[in-house]
Specification:
Blueprint lengths: L5 E6 L2 H4 L5 H14 L7 E6 L11 E4 L3 E3 L7 H10 L8 E3 L13
Parallel strand pairs: 1-2
Antiparallel strand pairs: 1-3, 3-4, 4-5
Bound molecules: FE2/S2 (inorganic) cluster.
Amino acid sequence: MDDYIRHVFICTSTTCSEGDPFGLRLQMHQLLRKKLGADFEKKVKVTKTLCLGQCGLGPNMVVYPEGVWYKGVKPRDIPEIVEQHLLGGKPVERLILHKQGAPKCESPHGA
Ligand code: FES
């Protein structure tokens, strides 16, 4: 890992994406670019991924180094996640699925 302050993995599988698999990632990129400049990815990396194993609760994402899992993330939640957690270091409690570590996968599609 480079010198990222945060690394976000966003599930872009169709089950989680509600018809727009890359929308949350794009929105997050746009906000980070606005806040940190064109080279924002040197500080915050946002990676698309396939199923994180919590399909029924999506859209899901996980933020490192804290290992905080978010569930049911909507476009309206992205500014709060960016400001409060990715830049401010304070997780958004109301969206947390698991505070640390990978949740137990109970989905037939899970990893
Ligand atoms: S499809 Fe997103 S967590 Fe499984």
